[in-house]
Amino acid sequence: MPKMKTNRAAAKRFKRTAKGGFKSGNSFTSHRFHGKTKKQRRQLRGLSMMDKSNVKRFKKMLPAK
């Protein structure tokens, strides 16, 4: 059976953590900041962990190396 192909779109957007979770950048960070508070903008800066309900699907897209 051939190897599973990595979904390249997902590989560019998500990184796998050591424990098997996924981290990604936040949405709502590209424009229209005048409607957001300073606290919202500050908390959107870093990376965030993917919700566990989506992890199973993304493990198929990004097979382990």
UniProtKB/TrEMBL annotation:
Amino acid composition bias (Basic residues), ranges on this chain: 31-44, 55-65
NCBIfam families xrefs: rpmI_bact
Superkingdom of this protein's organism: Bacteria
Family designation: Belongs to the bacterial ribosomal protein bL35 family.
Residue ranges of the region described as Disordered: 1-65
Gene: rpmI
Tagged with keyword Ribonucleoprotein: yes
Organism: Limosilactobacillus alvi
Protein name per UniProt: Large ribosomal subunit protein bL35
GO cellular component: ribosome
Key words of the record: Ribonucleoprotein, Ribosomal protein
